Every structure is written in structure tokens, then in C-alpha cells.
């Protein structure tokens, strides 16, 4: 782009990507609250939980995010049916400054039939996340996976999905324009927000009854993607600082929650990664077109309200340990403590294996942190380890919030809200998907979340070295 073109773009783009993203999140919340009123209750309870947590814990409560950010924070979830739809939705989100991060294969993350691969669209820049961290977990139906779909069903899925239009040309053009300019004019922004929000509104068009239930016998997730005329918000998720308190309060209000909180247990040590739960999918009235051509009212249970509590991002070493702990929990429940809940077993395993404080999580290279000037005198010029600097008080640590998702937890939420386990034939070969293949589908390289966290940590170390005129030996170098 020439200097003249850049000047014109900056003059036109009066509504920034962050402003567009924040308004988009607000409009989707209003839309979803109107469609699923229990979501409004979830938001109200989340707000009460956060305010009470802040009053009890003071400044420490905001260590993983300011109360303003946490209160405003949301993630959504949608599902699409083809590579074309996924590449188009990537363009829509790109216009809001949201880019694909992480690859999640839910097909083997649950005992139920969940035939999707996923990524999440979110800001990748730390400052942009601070302005508005809206993210959308986006799943694509693996319609060519023979474990779930025979050749005839695959062909019908391709025809059905190929015949619908989720995102119109005007919306896509405005999205591309916003991405190129870094925002839009006020008039374009209003039109873009209207079109983008409407594209995720629940369709009132009748559903083909026989086709929908043919897919539901395979997977409720498949029918919700490939058996309906349009996509929609599957759930919208507020963030809380105490998910156990929220679970209790929602249950006390008579709202049926899923059986347990997904992810790490509640314990006295640092919160890591992500904890999630939801209220169960509710009956929703929908119109069905039957084989005789008659349209009759029926009910579906596909949408629910999820809530999350975010913790500290883990390094590769930390994630390896986390995966081993999850496997150990499964083993003990299966072989030693079948009468215990997963959470009860996990609490013991966590206490045995994870440091119970942030400092050791950082210094053992298990969690991602940034490093900054501490309240003690700076050392003389020379070479120091991170441990020496942190333990002397010359350097302070700040946790990096985990901005992404866990396949097993996502599948657990999906499974808890399915109408049945569906069917799958594990004698067949699954279609191979990984981060590179899904990147090709989207047309944009999916970012590795671990690399993003590592870059953030390294930037803080580089700044310290320059400011203090020292060389810092990191965990990897020691």
C-alpha cells in the first residue's frame, strides 16, 4: 500500500478493529440472550460471583485479568459444515481482528461421536487482547471421516451444505475491507456489524425432519451442523473468577448444570489452563418439514450456556506434565478408586505433582510468565539465572493468562449436552487432520498458541536484559 493509499485508509477507518470486536461481542450477547434467556441468568450470576470474589480477595483477584476485562470477556462457539464455510468465516472474523489460533481434534477426545476438528479465532496481540479478548471456538464437520459417515451420507452432506449460503458477498467484502484497512468508516462499520450478527441468528426456516434425524443417529453435533439451513451461536461463554461458586449458585436457582466442572480441579495452588462448565441444553421449539410436505412444530436440545475460569498458560514442559496428570487420574479411577469422582482423584494427583505457588511454576519452566523489574535493587552488570533474579527480588513475575482451549474439556461439554452418544465405526480409518491441513482449508496459517506465549515471555526477558544491562540465563539454557 502506498503512502497516499495508507493515508486514505486511515482517514476512512474511524472504527478500529478492537471497537468493532467489542461491539460484535455485545450484539451477539444480546442476540443469544433473546434466543436463550437462561444465558442472561448466567451472565447475571457471573457478575455477582466476580464482584464477590473481588471483595474477598482484593488486588490479588485481578492477577489473571482486571475485573473490567473479566466482566466483559466472552467466547462464543459456532459450527460450520465445509472447508468453504470455514474459509469464509475466517474472513468474517478477520475483519474484527480475530485470527485462527490452535488446532483441536475432538473426534477422539470423547467416547461419544463428535466428528469435528476445530480452531479458535481471537486477537493474537497482547494489547489487542487487553482491549477486547473476544474469541470464537469454531468447529468444522469432518464429513469425509468414514468412522462416522458412509459414502452416501457424505455425498448428501456435501450437497446439502454446498447449497446453502451462510455469509453473503456484501458481508465478506466488508470483512476484507476492514482487515485491509484496520477498521471501517462508521457507516460501513454499522452495516458490517448488522450483517455479521444476523449471520449467526437462529434460522426460522423449517428443518428437513428425516435428514436431521438421520444425522442425529450418527451424532447430535453432525445434525446441528449439516442438518439445518444455517449456522448459529451454539453457546456464548462469560468468564468468572470462581467457577465453583458459580456452579453452586446456578444450581441453587434450579438451573440444571452438567455433572461436573471440566478441566483441572479446584485446589490451593495456581490455577492453570482452563476450567469450564455449562447448564444443560434446553428444549427449543423448531419447525420441521416432514416427508409428506407438512410443516409441524418440534423440539431440539442443542444449545446451552457455558462459563469458564481461565488460569495460567503452560509451557510445553508444563503441558506434557498436565497430560500425564490427566492420564494418571484416569488410571486411578479405573484401577484403584472407581468410587471416587474425577475431581476428587484429580485433587490428590495435583497436590502430588504440581508446585503449589506461582514462583516455582515459573522457575521450573512449567508455566508462562513475563518478567519485570522487582522492588529490590538491580544487580550489577553480569550473568544471572532467572531463579537468582526472582529470589533476590530484583525481578518480579506476572502470569500469562491462557487464552485458548482444551480438546478434552470441549468434548466433555459437547458430550454432556448431547441427546445420545451417536455411532461410530472404529474399524474404519479416520481422515487425517492436523494444524497444517486445517490451515490450508482456512487459507491462513493457524498460529501455535505456545509460540505466542513464548514470544511474549521472551520479549519481557529481552527488555529486562537491556534495561538492567545484564544477561539472563533462562530455564532452557541452564
What class do helices, strands and sheet pairing give? alpha+beta
Average pLDDT metric: 90
Oligomer: single chain
Total individual domains: 1
Uncertain stretches: 1-10
Give the CATH class: Alpha Beta
The Rg value, from CA coordinates, equals 23 Å
Major β-sheet profile: 5 strands, mixed
Overall helicity: 40-55%
CATH homologous superfamily heading:
Uncharacterised protein PF07063, DUF1338
Side by side, the strands of the main sheet go 3-4-5-2-8
Kindly identify the CATH topology. Answer: 2,3-Dihydroxybiphenyl 1,2-Dioxygenase, domain 1
According to DSSP, the number of beta strands is 16
Individual helix count: 19
CATH-scheme architecture: Roll
EC number: 1.13.11.93
Keywords: Dioxygenase, Iron, Oxidoreductase
Protein name: 2-oxoadipate dioxygenase/decarboxylase
Pfam families: HGLS
List keywords for this structure.
single chain, about 475 residues, alpha+beta, 2,3-Dihydroxybiphenyl 1,2-Dioxygenase, domain 1, five-stranded mixed sheet, three-stranded mixed sheet, 19 helices, 16 strands, about 15% strand, globular, disordered N terminus
Amino acid at each position: 500500500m502506498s503512502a497516499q493509499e495508507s493515508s486514505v485508509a486511515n482517514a476512512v477507518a474511524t472504527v478500529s478493529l478492537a471497537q468493532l470486536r467489542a461491539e460484535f461481542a455485545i450484539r451477539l450477547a444480546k442476540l443469544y440472550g433473546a434466543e436463550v434467556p437462561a444465558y442472561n441468568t448466567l451472565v447475571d450470576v457471573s457478575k455477582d460471583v466476580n464482584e464477590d470474589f473481588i471483595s474477598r480477595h482484593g488486588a490479588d483477584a485481578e492477577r489473571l485479568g482486571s475485573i473490567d476485562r473479566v466482566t466483559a470477556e466472552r467466547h462464543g462457539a459456532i459450527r460450520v459444515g465445509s472447508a468453504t464455510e470455514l474459509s469464509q468465516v475466517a474472513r468474517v472474523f478477520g475483519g474484527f481482528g480475530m485470527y485462527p489460533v490452535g488446532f483441536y481434534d475432538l473426534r477422539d477426545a470423547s467416547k461419544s461421536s463428535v466428528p469435528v476438528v476445530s480452531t479458535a479465532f481471537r486477537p493474537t496481540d497482547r494489547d489487542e487482547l487487553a482491549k477486547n479478548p473476544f474469541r470464537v471456538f469454531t468447529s468444522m464437520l469432518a464429513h469425509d471421516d468414514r468412522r462416522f459417515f458412509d459414502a452416501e451420507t457424505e455425498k448428501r452432506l456435501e450437497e446439502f451444505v454446498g447449497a446453502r449460503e451462510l455469509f453473503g458477498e456484501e458481508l465478506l467484502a466488508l470483512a476484507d475491507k476492514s482487515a485491509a484497512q484496520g477498521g471501517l468508516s462508521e457507516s460501513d462499520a454499522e452495516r458490517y456489524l448488522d450483517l455479521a450478527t444476523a449471520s449467526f441468528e437462529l434460522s426460522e426456516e423449517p428443518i428437513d425432519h428425516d435428514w436431521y434425524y438421520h444425522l442425529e443417529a450418527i451424532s447430535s453435533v453432525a445434525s446441528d451442523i449439516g442438518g439445518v439451513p444455517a449456522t448459529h451461536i451454539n453457546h456464548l461463554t462469560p468468564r468468572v473468577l470462581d467457577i465453583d461458586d458459580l456452579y453452586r449458585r446456578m444450581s441453587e436457582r434450579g438451573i440444571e448444570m452438567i455433572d461436573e466442572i471440566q478441566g483441572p480441579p479446584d485446589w490451593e495452588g495456581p490455577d492453570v489452563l482452563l476450567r469450564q462448565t455449562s447448564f444443560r441444553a434446553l428444549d427449543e421449539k423448531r419447525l420441521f418439514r416432514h416427508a409428506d410436505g407438512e410443516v409441524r412444530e418440534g423440539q431440539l436440545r442443542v444449545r446451552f450456556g457455558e462459563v469458564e475460569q481461565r488460569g495460567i498458560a503452560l509451557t510445553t514442559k508444563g503441558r506434557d506434565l498436565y497430560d500425564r496428570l490427566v492420564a494418571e487420574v484416569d488410571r486411578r479411577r479405573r484401577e484403584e478408586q472407581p468410587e471416587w469422582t474425577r475431581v476428587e482423584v484429580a485433587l490428590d494427583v495435583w497436590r502430588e505433582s504440581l508446585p503449589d505457588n506461582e514462583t516455582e511454576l515459573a522457575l521450573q519452566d512449567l508455566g508462562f510468565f513475563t518478567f519485570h523489574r522487582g522492588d529490590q535493587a538491580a544487580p550489577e552488570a553480569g550473568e544471572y539465572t532467572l531463579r537468582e533474579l526472582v529470589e533476590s527480588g530484583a525481578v518480579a513475575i506476572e502470569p500469562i493468562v491462557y487464552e485458548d482451549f482444551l480438546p478434552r474439556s470441549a468434548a466433555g461439554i459437547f458430550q454432556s449436552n448431547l441427546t445420545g452418544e451417536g455411532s461410530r465405526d472404529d474399524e474404519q480409518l479416520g481422515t487425517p487432520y492436523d494444524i497444517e491441513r486445517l490451515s490450508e482449508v482456512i487459507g491462513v496459517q493457524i498460529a501455535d498458541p505456545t509460540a505466542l506465549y513464548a514470544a511474549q515471555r521472551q520479549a519481557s526477558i529481552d527488555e529486562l536484559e537491556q534495561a538492567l544491562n545484564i544477561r539472563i540465563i533462562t530455564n532452557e539454557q541452564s
